[in-house]
């Protein structure tokens, strides 16, 4: 038997399009998708609608939940919020632990969220580069094993997409994967071996970012 782990980065975020948003935002480290980001998420959903994905796991940040929700609507699946897929809590990017919407508030906005799910991996601010890769890799391995042999989708951030891929296929992902906005990584398990089949595919998108930003 085989298993496919799809790993997607969230679509474009509002503060990438409008940097001034950050200055007045109530939760400046938890931006929503931009208008073009919503379109990107729709393109991702179209790309995945014919795949045999049975479960969707998403980081609890708003932009990842929004991206996952667009896909979940097309695939008619619930969303499980997994903190192990969270953004890199880098103190150079964030002056304090990022404030996010609660699970209850997110579930009110996105009814597909599974309130009965409990995250496997905890995250603590501040976080080193090594730590984000370790915990996102551990998360990917844990979810893959728990869901075996079902195909699953993980919706994460630049650093946690890369860390999740590295957790499955090893250091090859560090040099091979390009985690641009709304890109798609495909890792296939054949018995005990993990194979990297897509390394950050963006063929489903009509607009792409020219410079990869990992925040």
Describe the structure concisely.
With 215 residues, the protein is of the alpha/beta class. The protein has helices at residues 14-17, 21-24, 35-48, 62-75, 103-109, 129-147, 158-169, 172-176; strands spanning 2-9, 53-58, 79-81, 151-156, 184-190, 193-201.
Assembly type:
single chain
Largest beta sheet, briefly?
A: 6 strands, mixed
- Form type: globular
Mean pLDDT: 95
Strand order across the biggest sheet? 3-2-4-1-5-6
- Straight-line distance between termini: 36 Å
Beta-strand share of residues: 15-25%
Reading the helices and strands in chain order gives EHHHEHEHHEHHEE
Task: Tally the helices.
Answer: 8
Rg result: 16 Å
Decide which structural class fits the backbone.
Answer: alpha/beta
Percentage of residues in helical conformation: 25-40%
**Number of DSSP strands?**
6
Low-confidence regions:
none
Describe the structure.
With 215 residues, the chain is of the alpha/beta class. It has helices spanning 14-17, 21-24, 35-48, 62-75, 103-109, 129-147, 158-169, 172-176; strands spanning 2-9, 53-58, 79-81, 151-156, 184-190, 193-201. The protein has a 6-stranded mixed β-sheet, sandwiched between helices. The longest helix is centred in the middle third of the chain and has 19 residues, at 129-147. The relative contact order is 0.21.
Helix and strand arrangement:
Elements: E1 2-9, H1 14-17, H2 21-24, H3 35-48, E2 53-58, H4 62-75, E3 79-81, H5 103-109, H6 129-147, E4 151-156, H7 158-169, H8 172-176, E5 184-190, E6 193-201
Parallel strand pairs: 1-4, 2-3, 2-4
Antiparallel strand pairs: 1-5, 5-6
Helix pairs in contact: 3-4, 6-7
